[in-house]
Each structure stands twice: as C-alpha cells, then as structure tokens.
Amino acid sequence: MTYALDHVMMRVEDLEESLDWYQTHLEYEEKGRWEADTFTNVYLGPEDAGEDAAVLELTYNHDDRTYEMGDAWGHIAVRVEDVFDAYEELMDAGVADYRDPESCGGSYAFVKDPDGHEVELVERDHGARWSLDHTMMRVEDADEAIGFWTRKFEYEHTGRWESDTFANYFLKPQDAGEEAMAVELTYNYDGRTYDMGDAWGHVCVRVDDLHEAWDELVVRGAEAYRDPESCDDMFAFTKDPDGHEIELLNPTDAPGE
User: Are 23 and 109 in contact (CB under 8 A)?
Assistant: First the structure.
C-alpha cells in the first residue's frame, strides 16, 4: 500500500458560487461529480495536473445548512511560479485582500474562498500551476501526530520548519511523485487546543484494495471509525489522534467516477 493523498474535502454553502470562484481564479476544471439525494460532491483540479496530483472535493448539502470553520484545519496550499505575480493577479480579478506576500515575508501569501477556507499560495518549481501542494492540519501533540502518519501510513518527512512559537512538519508517502500533495502538521508550542468545526471534511488516501488497507490500518491500531461495510464497501474512514477524518478510497470503487 502506498496511501497517496487523493483529495481534500471542504463543505460549501453555495455550490455554484464556489465552483465559479475556483474555476475562474484558479482555472480549475471539473474532474468528477456525484449527485446523491441529499448532497452533491464535485471534484476539481487544474487541467494539466499529472496523475500523482490530488484534487479538491467540494461538498454541498442540499438542506441549506451553514458551517463553523473551527481552527483544527488550517488551509490548502496551491503552487505558483511567483507568489507576488499570482497574488496581484488574484487581486486584479477581484479576490479579497487577506495576507499579501510582503506580510508573509515574501515567500507565500493567503486568500480566502467564498466560504472562508484559507488558500495559501506557495512558490514551487514543479507541478501544474494552482495544483494542490499540501493540506495543513493543526495538532496538539507533534510526536503523536508524526508517529501516526509514519506508523499507520508509512509516510516520511519531506520538510520541516521550526520557529520560536510553532513548528511545521511535511509528510508524504514513501516514493511519492513530485506532484503528490503533502500533509502539513502544525504544532503550536503554547499548548492550545482546537475546535474541529464542520466546514472542513477530510483528507483522502488512495489504496489498491480497500479491505486489505482497512485490515492493515486496524492491525496498526488506527481508529475503526467507519469501516468499509458501513460505507457500502465503496470507501472507509479512520481518524488521526486529533480527530481529523481520513478517508480510504480505491478510485475504481468510487461513486460518480
């Protein structure tokens, strides 16, 4: 099992507004859609993204509910060639000013989508423009969180940044392609706790065999949150130590594909 990251899911309150934002500003195209009785899932990504790239899943519930952002999830990050040029381009297109490159030391910047999900712009010399570089999650125990990803999913460190008040740890599957999305674990040193909210849904890992992967994770001590049988043998879910949901998915079994 490689457990490569397949997508990250966010819930939105106005599907058409969100689709227009990502398709207009990040030049995303629709990669797939699943229409259920009570909700709609739409999968988006750059047209020229490679096979290792992850996609964005927008989930729209048909009952007009609203969501709480919480702070246990941080942001998604997308790749650009030049963060100043990309940020200026978004400002010229009418995206609201949030955190410009100068306020972030010149190496990254942030905007928000219509629902308030933060989108980081990061400079990369690889991957399609606007492709997903990483998803950031905040954790309360760095050692436990790193151990979870390395023990359960056999991920390895691809980068780390230690500052005076917090640390960022980046992890990917072993032998992951350059375009693959990473997990960024952010640990604040002040011992704070986090609210999960419900505006963010989950990250999803691809597996070759759903039941084999599930059995492997359970043996390794992963939480048996929603097993394959409870999900009609199409997918399954576990949780990390902080409660972030992680979906297991064999794309050949996925609905709407």
Answer: no
